[in-house]
Design a protein that fits this description.
alpha+beta; 2 domains; five-stranded antiparallel beta sheet; 50% helix; disordered C terminus
Length: 219
């Protein structure tokens, strides 16, 4: 079954699905978003006829039939086009929304599939922000964390991975939720220790200037 995702353009829902590691968009949804037509399916049909007559091009060759969730809640075959093909279709639709739609498509159409399905995406983003917090650039973050910072970081990552495996999560929404759950486990544990010790665990200290790393655990 194809997982159906929703994107919003100026209040209009555009269904999309992942196929061959790229986004494919519902053509009738794109047509409706650009034209505000009351019958986008009919508009799409007439558009195919017009383009074939005027340009000798078969717009259907740019499309694939993928099963998406229909308004009645059932999975139905739907004409879909990838980002490149949608841009071609936009050229054939006279609409004042064409340029804003192209900019919108550039934002949502080129999201890498790895970022959608990667359950550790939130962890990677957090790691990037933490490097900025410690004023690090190319340096390995773990080399500039003391033992407690490492412990709580590993707890968050391990918790996220364990929950992901246990629930067999798939898709961006589910994995985002699991990443938040794993981060909360580590965050709650860190805050509990900070309350008991009266000391902050995360600090801006790094070891770029040769500071001795504080060891709390004997090798």
């Amino acid at each position: 079954m194809t997982d159906t995702h929703l994107a919003i353009f100026q209040g209009k829902q555009v269904r999309k699905a992942i196929h061959n590691k790229e986004w494919w968009f519902s053509v009738v949804d794109v047509v409706e978003a650009l034209t505000d037509s009351d019958n986008p399916r009919d508009y799409w049909y007439k558009m195919k006829v017009r383009v074939k007559t005027e340009e000798g091009a078969e717009l259907s060759t740019f499309c694939r039939r993928l099963k998406l969730i229909a308004p009645d809640g059932k999975m139905r075959g739907t004409d879909c086009a990838n980002t490149e093909s949608v841009l071609r279709l936009v050229q054939s639709i006279p609409s004042p929304k064409a340029e804003p739609f192209k900019r919108w498509l550039a934002r949502v159409g080129y999201e890498r599939i790895q970022e959608i399905e990667d359950p550790e995406l939130a962890t990677k983003r957090t790691r990037f922000l933490y490097k900025k917090f410690k004023n690090l650039k190319r340096e390995n973050l773990r080399d500039h964390m003391d033992d407690l910072e490492l412990i709580f970081s590993m707890l968050g990552e391990a918790s996220t991975t364990r929950i992901t495996q246990a629930k067999n999560t798939r898709g961006f929404k589910e994995n985002k939720k699991v990443a938040n759950e794993g981060g909360k486990i580590a965050g709650d544990a860190r805050r509990a220790l900070e309350r008991k010790s009266g000391q902050k665990i995360s600090t801006r200290r790094n070891y770029l200037k040769g500071f001795q790393r504080r060891k709390l655990i004997s090798p």
